[in-house]
Design goal:
This protein has one domain: Aminopeptidase (3-Layer(aba) Sandwich), CATH 3.40.630.30. Helix content is about 30%, strand content about 30%. The protein has four helices and five strands. It has a five-stranded mixed beta sheet, with helices on both faces. β4, α3 and β5 form a beta-alpha-beta unit. α1 packs across α2.
């Protein structure tokens, strides 16, 4: 097993659809996700593919922006590793790739959101040195 991390080219961005769908637990239909992923690929978005040889086994999205409180930063989004590959240190290696990539783009820090109910991710991110700095609130303004 040779695990590799690389940026997925825009032309192949829909390769992530299966994992984004899985992460959303089917709450958003695949056609809507496809449209959104294509739109994201035209913004300040990049996605890391995690590969076992040529097989995609996970993804990690990254948004690049400048924030008044942080300067240039990278926001990690929709991180998922195929269940059969978990517990093998891939997540730690992935985050090192993220940190190096973000530093190469002039970022000062990496930030992320995680679902309140996703306790395993909380432990992982705390172990990575992340600290909780606030709450992420949302409101559906279409209702």
């Amino acid at each position: 097993m040779v695990i590799d991390f690389r940026i997925i080219p825009s032309a192949s961005i829909l390769d992530i659809l299966q994992y984004v769908y899985q992460l959303n637990e089917g709450r958003i239909d695949k056609e809507t996700l496809k449209e959104r992923i294509l739109e994201m690929s035209e913004q300040n978005y990049e996605c890391i593919g995690i590969y076992d040889d040529t097989k995609l086994i996970g993804v990690c999205g990254m948004w690049f922006q400048t924030r008044h409180y942080a300067g240039r930063s990278c926001e990690v989004d929709h991180v998922i590793v195929d269940e059969s590959y978990r517990g093998q240190g891939i997540g730690e290696r992935l985050m090192e790739f993220v940190y190096d990539h973000a530093l190469g783009k002039g970022c000062r820090w990496v930030e992320l959101n995680t679902y309140v109910s996703n306790f395993p991710s909380h432990k992982f991110y705390y172990n990575q040195g992340f600290v909780a700095k606030g709450y992420h609130f949302i409101k559906d303004i279409t209702k």
